[in-house]
């Protein structure tokens, strides 16, 4: 289910070690590691891989090197669920679509991204839809590209999905909700009269930690019930004014 370029699974740590406690987070940040240390958790389950391209040097002076060094020093393992979580039928996109009130959603695959297209409960002006999404996802800001249109069939892609504009349009969507929308996508959305709502990369994915923690809790075997599972909720990561 994961994209070919992805790096998922146990990316740091000993596969034979026993989990004492788990922290679930979108990103492996200093604060997420702090939480693991304070709560005696030796496993972090993260969405974004802390190691992506082949590592040639581990220098604590770089962001990646710093995080890897800290994890190794504290003996904390990292297990990544990334594009496999995005595309799973009960994954992040399906959860996001549900939170945003979409019904009758179906998975749509574009090269190596699987997103969802579904229906709003009633035809809604896309600007009003953006306002509602801002509230639902508790965002400090949101962007709406292209003309405001009445829409009912919308595409949802958590994280980075601006490049799906053409694909979503071809597959019958009337608007696209995603994050990381680049300038040229905004221009295309204007030309095509196809609204694109940029709710942010983290804005559309911050729901991951609580969702995954809940799923794990529900599925722990009897002997594993003692494992404490903590949710690390990342902040928006920027100041908007
Ligand atoms: Fe992401």
Tell me what the structure shows:
With 241 residues, the protein is an alpha/beta fold. It has 2 domains: 9-82 and 206-232, 3-Layer(aba) Sandwich (Udp-n-acetylmuramoylalanyl-d-glutamate--2,6- Diaminopimelate Ligase, Chain: A, domain 1), CATH 3.40.1390.30; 88-201, NIF3 (NGG1p interacting factor 3)-like (Udp-n-acetylmuramoylalanyl-d-glutamate--2,6- Diaminopimelate Ligase, Chain: A, domain 1). Helix content is 32%, strand content 27%. The protein has a 6-stranded mixed β-sheet with strand order 5-6-8-9-10-7. Strands 1-4-3-2-11 form a 5-stranded mixed β-sheet, sandwiched between helices. It is globular, with a radius of gyration of 19 Å. The N and C termini lie far apart (39 Å). The mean pLDDT is 96. The structure holds fe (ii) ion.
């Amino acid at each position: 289910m994961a994209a070919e370029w992805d790096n998922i699974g146990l990316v740091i740590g000993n596969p034979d070690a026993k989990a004492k406690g788990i922290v679930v987070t979108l990103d492996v940040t200093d604060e997420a590691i702090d939480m693991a240390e304070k709560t005696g958790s030796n496993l972090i389950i993260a969405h974004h891989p802390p190691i992506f391209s082949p590592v040639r040097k581990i220098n604590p002076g770089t962001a990646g090197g710093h995080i890897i060094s800290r994890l190794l020093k504290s003996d904390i393992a990292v297990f990544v669920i990334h594009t496999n979580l995005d595309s799973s039928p009960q994954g992040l996109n399906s959860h996001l679509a549900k939170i945003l009130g979409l019904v009758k959603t179906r998975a749509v695959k574009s090269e190596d991204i699987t997103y969802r297209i579904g229906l709003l409960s009633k035809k809604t002006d896309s600007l009003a839809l953006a306002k509602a999404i801002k509230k639902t996802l508790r965002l400090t800001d949101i962007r709406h590209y292209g003309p405001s249109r009445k829409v009912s069939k919308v595409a949802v892609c958590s994280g980075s999905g601006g490049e799906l504009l053409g694909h979503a349009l071809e597959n019958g969507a009337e608007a696209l909700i995603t994050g990381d929308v680049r300038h040229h996508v905004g221009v295309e959305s204007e030309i095509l009269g196809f609204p694109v709502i940029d709710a942010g990369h983290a804005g559309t994915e911050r729901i991951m930690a609580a969702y995954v923690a809940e799923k794990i809790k529900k599925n722990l075997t009897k002997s594993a019930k003692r494992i404490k599972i903590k949710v690390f909720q990342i902040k928006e990561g920027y100041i908007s004014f």
